[in-house]
TrEMBL record:
Protein name, entry field: Sensor histidine kinase
Histidine kinase/HSP90-like ATPase domain sequence ranges: 473-580
SMART domains referenced in this protein's UniProt entry, alphabetically: HATPase_c
Regions crossing the membrane: 20-38, 58-76, 88-115, 121-142, 186-211
Any GO BP: cell wall organization
GO molecular function, one term: phosphorelay sensor kinase activity
Primary localisation category: membrane
Membrane topology (UniProt): Multi-pass membrane protein
Entry-linked SUPFAM superfamilies: ATPase domain of HSP90 chaperone/DNA topoisomerase II/histidine kinase (SSF55874)
Superkingdom field: Bacteria
Organism per entry: Dorea formicigenerans
Amino acid sequence: MKSIVKDRQEEGYVSIKDIVYALIVNIALLAIIANLLSRIQTVQKLILQEKRGLKGDLILSMIFAGFIILSTCIGVKITSYSLNTRVIGAMSAGLLGGPLVGLYSSAIGAIYVLIFSTPRVFARGSAFATILFGLLGAGFYPYFQRGKWKYTDLFLLACFAEICDMASLLRMTVSLEVAVDTIVDAALPMIIMNAIGMIVFISNFNGVFIFQDLESSRQIQKMSVLSQKCLPLLQDGGLNKAENMKKLSDIILKETQWSGILFTDREKVIQWQCRAKDEQAIFYQAKYGDPIPEICRQAMEEGKLVKYEAQTGEKKWSHTAQDYSISSVPFRVKNQPVGSLTVWMKRQWMDRQSEIELLQHLMTLGSSQLAVLELEQQKNLLAQAEFKALQFQVNPHFLFNALNTISWVCRENPEEARKLLLTLADYFRYNLNYDAYMVPLREELEHVKDYLQIEKARFEEKLQVTYEVPEKMEILVPTLILQPLVENAVRYGIDRTGCRYVYIGITEEADAYRVEISDHGKGFPEEVLEKIAKDEPVGSSIGLQNVHKRMKSVYGEERGLQIQSTPKGSTVKLYFYKGVKEA
């Protein structure tokens, strides 16, 4: 190409057609090289990394500086100026690599232009323009990054850069006449062709950003799979269940490319596992109960991801760190460390940012799930405390009346009195010694019958109790869930004649057992119903409200007590849903 232009120069002129043809050939060469580079995985990762180290910046800078130098070498001389495509390499460095890469590569290119470019009369202006190209690209990096550019914007930016190039030639060339003649000959073809060349060159890197989108999609899919498989294991016991932690480690190693994985709590190792092919190379073994490594302790103290550094880390890991990247993240609940996750990744030529992001996602996911588990545990502890309070809430009037009744029965029927004493003993034994939170419905009903038998001895014919229950009741219900409601019916269910009527009905439905407790009293006061609906305390007794809250805790917010109240009596309904085994 140079020889063709040279022959035309010897003939006395160089046509616009020849200039355009020469620039097309140069641009095509740059585009071919860019296309090849964009397919190299290392180059892709370097361009996609928003936070590169000095090593990565220098490598990218040398690549784009190579484009600048190549453009200078294959420039085509017309009259006294060398047509070139330096703007493509210099500005692309800033647009694709960021501010530092744009600065470094354009500076390297400018030094080469200043020393080696010909003719010498344009060296200073060309060198200055080269640095300007790099800074211009760097300035627009935030706008063009991640492939979010428009080709019209890119075209206009390249045109503006070439205009700046022409201006620098005018300002920094000793001979104004030479500069003007050169600009007249070269300005239009260089501006138009280099702007088009910039679009062609940058287009070759579209695949890099497509690769990034695919990688992000894979990471999202991988995170979704890990969430679906890991969440149930964390929900069932958190970090304290060894069997689940083994399964969790198996899942993570299967779904990732990590070589080893270590779980700890705040004080000890919980689970260590690595791939069989990496056991010898990793050169680390741990078992349950071992002290936690320093990197785990550091991650928990700092509350963020920590990478192993040979200079400051444990010396016994320095050999492993030559082949593996070791990173640790903490699990935190209420801003307090509760454990850590440490992973070993096979060291590549450069760290994969996507793997680090995946590890951080696992940290967030694990911390969130452990926080939910902590909340559930606190909720259950509160429910258990309320349950214990209910167990020990012995109505002194009931005890006093029961003893008085038994004392009176002793004079007339000692055998009946003995049975009542046994019944009373069974009643209190169930109240005080039953540790299970869920019990068979039949046992709960027997406890209610003990209570009513004692009350029946007291009120005699003035207390009428009716049962309608099935023979088979295969379901677990919360302990002491019925007795407070029955006690309430006996206490307040008095009709106008002074009699007390209590009805207990149990019906099996498709998905639940419905229990109804009815009386013939005056009904619930309106303010009591409002307080129950708002979960507010009802008088000095916690019994009725406790039953309502426990039902919602076990079966769901919409499944508390259902109360139908009229001046002629009340009915309280409870639904015990099948399949619930524990609170």
